[in-house]
Amino acid sequence: MLVCVPAVAAPSQAARIARIEKDLGPVGMIDSTYQQPPPATRQPQLATGYLRTGQAVEGRYHTYPEMAAAGLWTTPTDLAKWAIALERAHNGETSPLMSQASAKTMLTPGLGHWGIGVEVEGQGDDLRFTHGGDDWGFKANLVAWPKGERAIVGMANGDAGMQVVMELMQAVAREYGWSGWSPQIIDAVASARRRCPTMRGAMAKDSPRSPSTAGAWRSATAASPWSSSLSAATSSSRTTTATPFR
Fold this sequence. Notes:
There is one protein chain. The protein is of the alpha+beta class. It has a single domain, classed as 3-Layer(aba) Sandwich (Beta-lactamase), CATH 3.40.710. Helix content is 32%, strand content 15%. It is built from 8 helices and 7 strands. The strands form 2 sheets. The protein has a 5-stranded antiparallel sheet, sandwiched between helices. Strands 1-7 form a two-stranded antiparallel sheet. The radius of gyration is 22 Å and the shape is globular.
């Protein structure tokens, strides 16, 4: 049997972007866009990505075809606004982002501690959600606590930038006493003594932690001109340099 199906014109790229971005304005994300590549009017805001060698990414940044996974250009401040809007919805407050039912579903952990789009950890007052960003030449991370509507977002325009991002985020959490985001402290000496019989010869010359390798890493990253930016929900500062987030 043959069925006549009327042709439906596919929406233009501009229409798709407008539909995706319709929720950014009400949340207050005025420095964010899904346009790929970003328009000329936003070029002065865009950070240049850097590789571990210290070289800039060709063309300053890579344009990805996946708009949902790698299409958002944003700032730490804007992403923190999104996290707080999600938290407000979760807590039953008025939020332009979604309903309380949708927010609670999104922050309900499932397989592998993942909710819908974010990783969910802790419970009760310590409930928090996280998501990392990893594009060519850029690194980012987000952690947010619905209790108290708190969030920390860190971004760096360098492939080796996650080390700095995590140190900064942990420093903020430690300063404000926000739980669940402190580094794990390991007594390296005690551990070495217990495992000494099984660890003989582990520090051979080809070990990735050998002095020569560590020195090469330091010299490569020390010359990298990338920088990092940070935003916490308790801060009134605004970061306007945009980096891609996926």
